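discrete fold record:
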Amino acid sequence: MTEDNKNIHQDEEQQITLIDDQGNEELYQVLFTFDSEDYGKSYVLLYPTSAEEDEEVDIQAFSFTSDDAGDASKGDLFPIEDDEEWEMVEEVLNTFLADDNMK
């Protein structure tokens, strides 16, 4: 993990509802958020609340602007469209998962 991406924040109380192209809603739990000085953005990683423990899940990632209290679930989400930005987010996620498995 690069030095500027070390501010990972876990808040297990935040949930976000995502709506797909067909209008279906699915509730997601915030896995963690972090800030990147390189890109000047905040990021949120989400997983479906319907996922069973030890089930492989599809983690969603977005850049976001939070509300005044810093709550990602009440701000705006934006897609990550740049390949280098995706690689940075994946690196942070992989480091987080490796650190979490060490506990």
